[in-house]
Structures are given as C-alpha cells and as structure tokens.
Amino acid sequence: MKYILGIDVGGTKIAAGLVDKNYKVSQVSILPTSQTDLMGQLERLIRDYSGFSAIGLGMPGQVLPNGMIRSLGNVPSWKPVNLKQALHSKFYVPVNVINDAKAFALAEASIGAGKSFETVAGVILGTGIGVGLVSNKKIYLGANSLAGEIGHFEMPNGKFFEEEVRQAGPFKNAKQAHKYLRSLMSFIVRSIDPEIIIVGGGWGRLS
Hints:
The chain is α/β, with parallel strands linked by helices and 207 residues long.
C-alpha cells in the first residue's frame, strides 16, 4: 500500500503520520516545534519514516505556489528556502507544501465537515491565527498567497490581531476568548461570507 507522509507544522508543535488512500493515519508522531533548527528537525523527522511515496506539509506562514517560504511569524529563526525543492532533492519523492490553514480548509471541504458545501472557511486558532477559503473544492490563495492571513491584520493600536490575542491569553474557556472570537468571526463572515466556518487548533477545545 502506498502512503503519503503528512506533516502539520505549527508554531508550538509538529504532528506527522502516514496517510493511506482511505485517509487513515498511522504511525503518528507529535513533537515540539524547534525554534532554532526547524529545517533540520523536519529532515530528521522524515528520515524516521519509511514506505511513503510522497510528502505533504502544512506550514504556518506565507507559502508561495512554488514552495518558497520566506518567513514564519511564529518561528523567527526560519531562513528563506524553497522547502519543496529542498526536500525533494534529499528524499527523491514528490513534495507539496501549503499554508496550514489552507490545508485544513481543503481537507474539511473535501472529506470533512464541509464536504457538502461549496464555500468553506477553515480557521486555525492556535499559536497563530489563519484562515483558508475553499470554493468548489479549490483553495483561494490570493495574488501573493496571503489570502486568509487574518492574524496579521493591523489593529488601530498598531499591533497585529494575533499579537493582541496572544497577550490577552492564554484563555481557559470560550467566555474569556469571546470578544476576540466575535471579532474574528464577524470579519470572516463580512469579508468571505462562507456557507460554513470550521474551527481547528487549540482554541477549538475551549468550552
């Protein structure tokens, strides 16, 4: 059986596993995100796996269509690199790299809670805040692959939205996070107007 090695990179943790043709995930690994050598960490993680025929990565930042990642807001030590080319040259399998929120939105729109809807917004609420928009099962990237980087819109006080949220947290329940969730959902509804909004990430577990 052919497997794809899926790797979800967040600002705090990385989750990886082998995915089969029925989307069943096995051999799951979870580890803290390196803040000093993320590239080396990814290479070591990939070497721990075998039997895969392709690699798919979700990265927490701006990912250009060619696989270039210039910076990661929550991993300041990241150096600009075309991750798609770099990993392909080391492991000799097809590599696809995409923003993590866009990957989440596409997965939910294809086989998850949004599969019955034409327009789906997937929201990652974790170390960073990102949104992916899928229309008719296709991701909308924007002119510079920045569509959905809502966490980085600037507030009147000069701070980025996710910076202000981070300073106000961590939140223990949804009531504490209410005003930020309300603002975020209002922004999404009035700018994107999706049929469904699906929330993932650490905030999704708030009660």
